[in-house]
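Re: the request from the purification team.
They wanted to know what the chain is likely to look like in 3D before they choose a buffer screen. I agreed to run a prediction and write the result into the notebook, where they can find it.
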Amino acid sequence: MKQKYKLETITPVHIGSGETLNHIDGYYADRKWYRIDLDKVLTHPNTDINGLTSEMSQRDFRWSNYFSRHNMNAADLSTYSLLCAHSPGTTDIREAIKSVGNRPYIPGSSIKGAIRTALLSDLINHKENQRLFDNSSAHLNKEIGKGSRAYRRNETPAKRIEEMALGKDPNHDLLRALQVSDTEPLESDALAIETAWTVTLNQNNQLEQKIEGNTEYKNYVEVIQGGQSLTFTLKIDDWLFDDPAYDKLGFNDTQYGAIQSIFDVCYWRNNALIDKEIEFYDSHNFVTLYNRYIGLKNRNNSIEDGAFMLQIGWGTGYLVNTVSSSFTQGEDAPIDLMALRERYRLGTSRSRRGHYDEREFPKTRRILYRGENPIAPLGWVKISPVQN
């Protein structure tokens, strides 16, 4: 089954290129950030190449000063310009992934990765998969029992669980059956530069922008703005579930049912995530984000047949990218959350070495801000089939 889909960005989405941009790469003026085209600058009649090279080597070099002194227009010397409410100054900007011509798109791997986590969560919690749940719990408890003496962030405790749930290696992986293309690219003006702050609970149990010493935990990011539409194709390879491939790959009926109902799987996974965020922001009286998640809840509940929502990309957070809550929530939870955190040093205090805040975990979120006003979470999209 191969189907064309439309992806609509509900809130801004950042899929990073892995690169950052700085004040040498661009210029801020009149609520826009211009990506400088150095070739255009070098060929400008007012440019002295030796003089420019010397100036750019200075720590205080700024394009605004250079253009002003040499009577140049930034708009004429840029490859693209983006809306940007506040000047990044000397703070780096996380670049969005783009195709030829600086056209942003969303890789199929970002979409498929979010679906993969939803499928993994569904299989772990499936009523017919008690053995998988028990074996996964036993694996985690065994890992916790090793203690937390060494640095654990580079370990991958979920790898074994993924192998048990999805397949022992890439050749036997259930997600072989799901093929997701990259989206078609958008024009560069679909991008904007936004400010993403880390918010955290203070000592009064209130959410605030995280600042430690002189360090502000904020990032400038190129994002695909909300309300943009992109298209891609999604294919489920049904042949892999026919004999003899079905037996050879070791798939079972529960796996087959999950991948054939990915729309429902994603609905229930996201409904649970949204409910958790509603509870979090409500309990800390963070009204703007509470209201945004109520809107997402209503949208998810009224979504049409064959459509589903996902949260993708950078800034989505711990809850979206893991399935640990399947093992740590409820009175009969088989895994002690604090023991898991201590084993992998999750949420340890930077200022108080070895200290863990016991109020709740995670206590931080990444949120887009305009000035002092929070506006939205990152990464929510709606995916719906395109009718032929």
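For the purification team: The chain has a mean pLDDT of 92.
Please add any questions underneath this entry.
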